[in-house]
Amino acid sequence: MSKAINFEQIEQTEEFKELKRQKYKFIFPVPILFFLYYLTFPILSAYAKPLMTKLVIGNLTFGYLFGLSYFIVIWTLAFVYVVKARKYDRMIDEIVQKYGPKTKEKGA
């Protein structure tokens, strides 16, 4: 019995197609939304100076807090990506186990 994984067969399964759909629904919108969030800072700095210079807490302005929020958003996105990647890895393992080669031969 061959131990090779037939990736062409796995690629044609509904489970793998659903995995790709779920993955793309997450992977494409997130960078686009972050890019828009990233562009908001210079746009607000140019066109909403009263908002960006408004004191919020002590001597901290809205602009400083908005800039610091990038770190929070980046770490949150990294955490969410790690959680999602683990889910996708489990799904891949299940698909490979289901459609991949059998590790035990009958009669062994």
Structural overview:
- This protein has a two-stranded antiparallel sheet with strand order 1-2.
- A hairpin with a 2-residue loop joins strand 1 (55-57) and strand 2.
- With 108 residues, the protein is mainly alpha-helical.
- It is 74% helix and 5% strand.
- The protein has helices at 7-11, 14-27, 29-47, 49-52, 62-99, and strands spanning 55-57, 60-61.
- Helix 2 runs antiparallel to helix 5 and helix 3 packs antiparallel against helix 5.
- The model has no long low-confidence stretch (mean pLDDT 89).
SSE topology:
Blueprint: H1 7-11, H2 14-27, H3 29-47, H4 49-52, E1 55-57, E2 60-61, H5 62-99
Antiparallel strand pairs: 1-2
Helix pairs in contact: 2-5, 3-5
Notable traits:
108 residues; mainly alpha; two-stranded antiparallel ribbon; 5 helices; 74% helix
Biggest sheet: strands, sense, closure? 2 strands, antiparallel
What's the number of helices? Answer: 5
The N- and C-terminal alpha carbons lie at a distance of: 12 Å
* Integer average pLDDT: 89
Strand order within the widest beta sheet? 1-2
What's the structural domain tally? 1
- Poorly predicted regions: none
Short description:
The protein has 108 residues and is mainly alpha-helical. It is built from 5 helices and 2 strands; from the N terminus they run H-H-H-H-E-E-H.
